[in-house]
Amino acid sequence: MSSTSAGVPPTPSDPGRRVLVIMPAWNEEGSVGSTITELRDLHPDVDVLVVDDGSGDGTAEAALAAGALVCQLPFNLGVGGAMRTGYRYAVRHGYDVAVQVDADGQHDPRYLDLLLQGLDRADVVIGARFAGEGDYRARGPRRWAMVLLAWTLSRVTKVPLTDVTSGFRASNARATKVFAEHYPAEYLGDTVESLVIASRMGCSVVQVPVGMRVRAAGQASQTPAKAAIYLFRAMLALFLSLVRKWPSVEDTTAEVTV
Amino acid sequence: MTAPHLLGLVGALVTLITLFELLRRRHLREKYAVTWSFVALATVVVAVWPATLDWFAELVGVAVPANLLFFLASMLLLVVSIQYSYELGRLEDRTRTLAEEVALLRLELADHRAASGAEVDPLAPRTGEDVPGQ
Prior knowledge:
The complex is a heterodimer. Chain A is α/β, with parallel strands linked by helices.
């Protein structure tokens, strides 16, 4: 628990709006249950779909026990694959809003309403670190990569963005349809490339400042070599996402097929 | 006929026979077999009429005909590798889509079973199912 959410207004989410929280989980047995419980306590009106990304532990059982809908991928696809599965579920079941929340407890569910309010202004709302709220820090090549990505994405979306690799985000039905068909699976695709796709297909993007917590279980990989590789691959992923061809929105806004 | 030419001829014939057998047993798809058949036939031509290679080398300005052979062979392997990467990527995309659909269908199946009143555990492995991580 952090103390960073003191300033969050306790506005209830629009009661007429059906919200699906999509939680990609890969071997998160230790944290997924408490993350779901906390979320459901704070927001009893939203549905939670855990996409079990081919876990080898009891992630699915823990999620089911905590009261979430659980859908199991037959093998590990990565966050992008898990998220597209969730977006497809959202489209097929007519949800108005899809929100991505990580299973490891990094994303504080108290900021959910702030994200939902942002949807009044845009199709995609990013919960951004480094935006005044919280004390998340990154250093070295990882930091440079984040700054570079944020700068470029701000140009693409024409809105100032500071944290484009944040996985804490909400999308309305329009953006959800785009994601249900085109959410990428490759490196950084689930964060950076998905924003480029949304933006180039005509969805607007904004960010709201959120505080993030350290993960409840598991650990992030952080060595200098890995950080350097991160920078290089991030630049490559960014470049590719910018030069790739995307279909027109007309091809997408119909029905999810593929 | 010199020894290297004989070697080339034997290699080409073995390739052709192998391709024919694989096609006959339906272990190889035509689209791949066409490329390799072409390569094997070209090898036969060069082995039987070595002058063809010399003539072609002179035409494109390569001093040593054997070098032209190496160059063409490596280019061919490169192109084939790129084609395989392309096919692999396409297959990965399709596998991913299928996996996502399977996951959604599993959930829907569990919902339907629950709705029909059957006592089921939606996570229980069903017969013939691939259980992740095991």
